[in-house]
Amino acid sequence: MYLPIISPSAAPCRLILYIFLLWLVSVAAYAVPAQDVGGKDVRLADFPVGYFIDSSESLTYETAQNKTFEATNSTATLGTGASVTWHRITLDNAGPEAKALFLHLPAAFQVRALEIYEERSQSLVGQARVDLNNASNNPLMYRGTVVYPFSVPAGETTVLFVRSHLYSHQWFAAEIYDDQNSRKALVGGHLDIALLVGMMVALVFYNGLLYFATSKKENILYSLYLISGVVWIALSYGLIAEAFNIYGDAVFILNLSVFTMPIFLVLFMMSIFETREFYITEHRVLSGLLVLLVGGFCYGLFDIEAALIPASSLAALMMLVTFSVSLSMWRKGNPLAKFFLVGHSFFVVFNGFAVLFYKGVIEPNYLNSHGVGIGIVLEAITLAFIISYRIKVLEDIRAQQGELKRQAATDPLTQLYNRRYFMTEGESLIEKARALGEPVSVVTLDIDYFKKVNDTYGHHAGDLVLKGVAVNLQKFSRDRDLIARFGGEEFMVLLPGADHAEAKGCAERIRQGVEKHSVQVGDGVSIRVTVSLGVTQINSAKESLEAAANRADKALYDAKTGGRNRVCCAA
To answer: In what residue span(s) does the GGDEF domain sit (predicted)?
Structure first.
């Protein structure tokens, strides 16, 4: 502030104005109103606090207490330009009794060092220092919260100065409680964070199992993304401090997860959308973003504090790029992009609040301070749905392909295998029998006087007869036998592991079964047919299936010329 120099001859009114301005300057340093703690129940979680940014990072208490403190709230964020900040809390006791109180600093787990100075009547009556690198056994540290006991005598004022030294982003949270409310505040904390972490850990295990079941790399990338998110949420919201009682530099390095999260998310997008093959432009954009993220991660390995300063800006760029890329793929017709957009919208919106919170642009509240965790969990759930949906799509495609293969290998009328499949699969079975030293035989079958059935009763009746013979072939053959309709009224059975005698017995059972079977063709008309069969054992060491089938056909011809409805064996 510029003040004019007053000469001895100045008018009295100018002297009065000068004194008034000096008074205003002195009052500005204490413009933050005091809180009355004289009531019976003391539970302050939202109250005005003064702050002063120590850009030199070297001011002592004696110097800092005379600085001008600006007004803020007991929960505040100041961004990246306030590594060392002094906070001033003024408490009045208008009650008749002295108050024994506790200052809670619930965000202490993420600072480098804290100093607390207790002042009364402009005299220092108490002080404490907590170095987070040696805080595990500090009596003031309780599950990530610094708890400083102090008192406010009746009719007096106590001023608390808190020097907060953070690594990168400066945020501050303070609460004032009496003994009973202090105990309540320290019990059951971080239940919401534990719930978020538990949900994500469950998703990690689920996708780990999916990876082992499908060997799809997007499952492992998604699991790594979730693990990074779990680490960041547990670290940033104090769950690691509460569970393991470790603080300072030892865990601060885990903030590298702020880079690994988007790295694995981008890799996941590349994999599940197959950008390298189908979306060249989007793939190049994601690759450029990936280079920036990996560069930030590598920089953080050497100087994590400096790397975290632009991290929020890099996060904003990542959200813009990934959202734009997914929108582009959705417009190009990718069926998964619309689901990704829904989940990523949660991530972008909630993380947008968080970025503004970390930069000190918006006022802190639960939604802003927990935006990253909420956004990650909501997106993680949606991405899990995308993976499940993609698996369903792939299974549907496989099922369709399987059905097409089945149709290509199956006779549409009898649902037995067709000639082409029989010859291909039969050669494989003969090769297997040769390797195992097992016998293998073949049976050919032909329906007797089938043309007469068609001429007398029509082709519909002939189809019913063919189906009836197919049913008996399946009924009197073994499960491992290969059965096919070769065409017309001719069928063939390959019997792995069956010698000549066993194949002949199987053929006889089939003959008898068909003979006893009657086919209802409508209007009370039933038809009985007989079959002739030829049997031979295959010389698997030197004979092909086709050659063996030809020998069985000769035996079938002998059965036909010998009177039909009989089994004949090839020599």
So the answer is: 438-571
